[in-house]
Amino acid sequence: MLKHNERKVNSSIQLLEEYRANRKQPYKKKRIDFSGVTDRDIYNITAPFQDEGKWVIAGRVEKRDSEASEVMFFENHDDQWILRENSPVFQLQDPFFTKIGEELILGGVETFPHPTLQDALSWRTVFYRGKNIATLEKFFEGPDGMKDLRLVELKDGSIGIFTRPQGEKGGRGKIGFTKVRTLDELSIESIDSAPLFQQFLDEEWGGANEIHLLSNGLLGVLGHIARFDEAGDRHYYSMIFVVNPETGDYNNMQIIAERADFLEGPTKRPDLVDVVFSGGLVRKANGTAELYAGISDADAQVLLIPDPFQSFKQ
Fold first, then answer.
1. What CATH number is given for 12-312 in this structure?
2. The dihedral formed by the CA atoms of 131, 240, 30 and 24, expressed in degrees to the nearest 10
3. What contacts 295, CB < 8 A, 6 or more positions away?
4. pLDDT digits over 25-45, tens only?
5. Do residues 148 and 162 make contact, with C-beta atoms less than 8 angstroms apart?
6. Residue 90 DSSP code
């Protein structure tokens, strides 16, 4: 089922055709009801997670005409997500979370002035740790220029690292994987040396968004695959694949959602209309899953779909 040998790499267009041919419709879809922020968009959210006994979503909050982003936390009250009082606010984009040991690990993308290009920005993935949101403290900064860096605790207690270099090694953005024994061993060197999966055409790109440790020890990766069209517009699709962390074997990507599956809504710019940015997946006991996603860089929605990792559990 999982292979590591040379393979044919499918384009996002081919994967989309396969998805549409096998999609089971209709999917249930819903816009997430946020309150407490009136002058900015909330998008590129996490899936809900528990903090101090309450369900919380972290979201990217910014004005429609700006990239100056803050990560804020919203607490669930009667199916409405209300801005949490007295919670920290982080100067980050695209939040994500995981649990390692007894700690909450929160991350996001930090932007800063480009070291060589005037009036340009660079970025890196940063990580915070704590027993809860209120106690989060920064403990690691990823390589400059790398988004979509993700961590996961493996079955033996070691740490899996999903990387996404760009440039000479990764082109527009390819996914790599490596392991370290503990969080204290996390380093720029271990990340930079991670081998890459053979998944993307050179003209396309993608990244891991959330990692699920399956009951058999395999890793279910929720991510995105993206491309430009001839007009320069971006097309982002939600995808999954599965990795054996012991061998490095992995299966082919599958698209699990596209923009047309969701409700119509606003967009940040005309070139971002066809964008689904995977946030998180809540897997249900009945074989379904809730996909939380950022939509068109201006909206946040949830889509009820078949659990894409169901067939990999055994």
1. 2.115.10.20
2. -150
3. 43, 259, 262, 265, 275, 276, 277, 301
4. 778 999 999 999 999 999 999
5. yes
6. B
pLDDT tens-digit readout, 242-301: 999 999 999 999 999 999 999 999 999 999 999 999 999 999 999 999 999 999 999 999
Length of the chain: 314
Q: Tell me if the bond preceding 266 is cis, omega within 30° of 0.
A: no
Q: Write down the domain spans for the chain.
A: 12-312
Q: How many CB atoms lie within 10 A of CB 86?
A: 5
Q: How far is CA 33 from the centre of its chain?
A: 21
pLDDT for position 314: 43
57: Cα within 13 Å, side-chain hemisphere: 32
Mean pLDDT of 110-137: 90
Residue 207: CB atoms within 10 Å: 26
Residue identified by tokens 């290009």 is: 117
Whether the CB-CB separation of 16 and 255 falls below 8 Å is answered with yes
The helix (H) or strand (E) run that includes residue 195 is none
pLDDT of residue 276: 98
Residue 134 has a pLDDT of 97
Is the pTM higher than 0.85? The answer reads yes
The tokens of 300 are what?
Answer: 């946040």
From CA 136, how far away is CA 194, in angstroms rounded?
27
